Amino acid sequence: MKTLHSALLNDNYFEDLFLCCCEKQEYPPASLSEIWMRDHHTICYITAGNGNIKFGRQNLSLSAGQGMWIPPGRACRYQADSEQTWHCLRIGFTGKRAESVLSELSLHEPGRRFFISNQTRLEEISKKLLDSTRGTLMQIFLRQSLFYEFLSILAADMQEEAPLDNSFNPYVTRAIGWIREHYAEHDLRVSDVASHVGISRNYLFTLFKESMGHSPQEYIASFRLNRARELLIGTEYSVDSISYSCGYEDPAVFSRAFKKKYRMTPINYRTHIPAHHRPEPQDPLPSQRASKNPSP
Fold this sequence. Notes:
There is one protein chain. The protein is of the alpha+beta class. Helix content is about 40%, strand content about 20%. The chain has helices at about 100-105, 120-130, 135-155, 170-180, 190-195, 200-210, 215-235, 240-245, 250-260, 265-270, 285-290, and strands spanning about 1-10, 20-25, 30-35, 40-50, 50-55, 60-65, 65-70, 75-80, 85-95, 115. Strands 1-2-9-4-7-10 form a six-stranded antiparallel β-sheet, with helices on one face. A four-stranded antiparallel β-sheet has the order 3-8-5-6, with no helix packed on it. Helix 2 (about 120-130) packs antiparallel against helix 3 (about 135-155) and helix 4 (about 170-180) packs across helix 5. The longest helix is centred in the middle third of the chain and has 21 residues, at about 135-155. It is globular and about 55 Å long. It starts with a strand and ends in a 6-residue tail after the last helix.
């Protein structure tokens, strides 16, 4: 392992949420390193290459554009792919609101990967962070502003599941693809997914837990809510229209599920994200809901 740049900061001038460290490391092919995450939260983001991070019983494959949250006090094993150098960016932070912010970003479950398409911007911010390590008041404010900008990109661009991973079991890959095509159907059941890929419901459950760390039903629920989040910040569709388009028959049930996951109502979430951070929607609302719930 080669540390390209590292900065221990601990800017506790800000008690609610502040940066502890920022470091970028490169791991030569097939290299193995053990790293202790100390007493702060860590967001690990991959800028190039492929590798695996193992902590506890979790063993996740991560490639460029993917990232994950690592809780405090964890010993992690980083192992690079055997054929290419692996580049990892780590942002460490803590504070009174750290856990609630992680929850709002849906990063409160260890081992859940995310994907960011705006990789260039994240690398620009991290470079500026690593270049501003002096202890002047100006530098402290600059680092904090860059740290919050980093989080703002996660809030606006983060997808909870990366594009289909070829390392997944083929049945899991096919199941995920089918769920993404049919998530808007309110009567979608795990048994339907299992039947489509040609295996039993119980076997599909086992494969999902092994590959992704959660059940097919949890994946469906998470994908629906993440899609709703994208529509809330990327369109002007009504909350009711979005709830129907994401597979919920009852907008009240949708609102309760959304609040449980993101710690705020859909309406509050929409107003919480600044307009200039809102991404474009990936596609229009499903046509089968259009006549029932026309968009405004």
